[in-house]
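Case study: Pyridoxamine 5'-phosphate oxidase family protein.
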Amino acid sequence: MEKIYEFLKKCDTYYLATVDGDQPRVRPFGTVNIFENKLYIQTGKVKNVSKQIGNNPKIEICGMADNKWIRVEAIAVEDDRIEPKRAMLEAYPTLKSMYSAEDGNTQTLYLKDATATIYSFTEEPQVIKF
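Here is what the predicted structure looks like once written out:
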């Protein structure tokens, strides 16, 4: 999981895909954090992405760094406790201008039953399950 975290941090921006009815939706994301040995992402509960994950928690993440790319398939599980929200906001202090752990909007989700595959043009794909 640490390798996935480091890769996504290197990407700076990665892309998260959800399903909206029968339509795929993809948008840029930038938050990733490890808390209590789980990989977390963050969004706002008022956003469409939050509603889509609520309706279908299966997500996919894709990003590229150092001429390699990653795909992560997972179930996004909401953790509404204040501790992971605080940890995320400490990891990304610039978010504090838009979110707070107590605002009722900040949503932290950890990735469950995840399979990450790291690809390159010169090496065999590397599969990591967490």
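For the exam, be able to explain this: The mean pLDDT is 98.
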